[in-house]
Amino acid sequence: MNSAGGTRKVTVLVQDLQRLAVGLKRNQRYPALEHLLSKGRHFHASAESPDHFRFRLFGVEPDGELPIAALTRAADSKQNPAPHQYWLRTDPVSIWADMARVVMTSYGLADLDEFERNEIENTVRSVLLEEGVHLHADHMERWCIALTEPLGFSFTPLEDALGMDMAELMPEQPESLYWRRIMNEIQIALHSCPVNVRRRRNGMREINSVWFWGGGFIPDASRHRVFNTVYSDNPVTLGLSSINDCHMKDQNQASVVDLHEDGKSILIDWSTRLRDPLVELKSLDRLAKRLLARARNENMEIVVYCGKRNGWRYDRRAGRRFWRRIRSLAYICNSQFPE
Q1: Are 120 and 93 contacting, i.e. CB atoms less than 8 angstroms apart?
Q2: C or N: which end of the chain has fewer Cβ atoms within 10 Å?
Q3: Who contacts 320 (Cβ-Cβ below 8 Å, separation ≥6)?
Q4: DSSP label at residue 176
């Protein structure tokens, strides 16, 4: 992963690129992004999940469940957890029940005001305190708790749990009964929480449960400093950057990236934040345009990873591949290299 000699290497991870391109028509074009991917050399880069891929980029190969919670704590608290602390994500979620099943429909507190968020947080905090567990809510949509001992089982990752029947999601090990009970008590407390009473009366979604997942200890740093500078808002990437002493910048700074002070190895982890995929793709195209301009004038390699399977490598030699036809983003993502 380290850049050799005078070559600058910019790695761009766009986890949702293929999803953003799903609804595109052939006449909706993004010239810089399409040039980068059409002229670049395609290669396969398989990983179990996008977060597994992030670990691999940093040269970290974890055993078993990914320690997402410990990295989240490092990212949101701006300090690395002690090696002996076992962390577990405890995220606020919405569940919906019918006569046959209970389904997790969404997570986070994005549509609540500050007062409502505090009320939900304090309700969950009070239940956990009765169990001697302290809730760390450094970020409004991702919470963590620290345990003295690791769990002997794992919970389904949050993104995978959405839309699934809660009965199928719950671990079956006997020791998981303790966490089922805590979850039930939190659900009871949240049901009568004034915020949810008002939202229920107004036909709005309730924040009526939490989901435990991502347990683990903070991993060791990689043997080599893989990236000098990292642009990201993703908690896993930020946590990995923290333990590897990378210089960290907000993702929104990447669209105006200058690179002069960023070192020879740079990571841009682009997480989709907007509901409008066309706006998101325009921002990505502006980023690609700036990177291509630099690649034409200096010894620089651009590596783009899409999702968890496909990658493209671009340098000045790739730019001279005049025989390679420029394809639309819709074709590249949905026809040529489908997930």
Answers
A1: no
A2: C
A3: none
A4: G
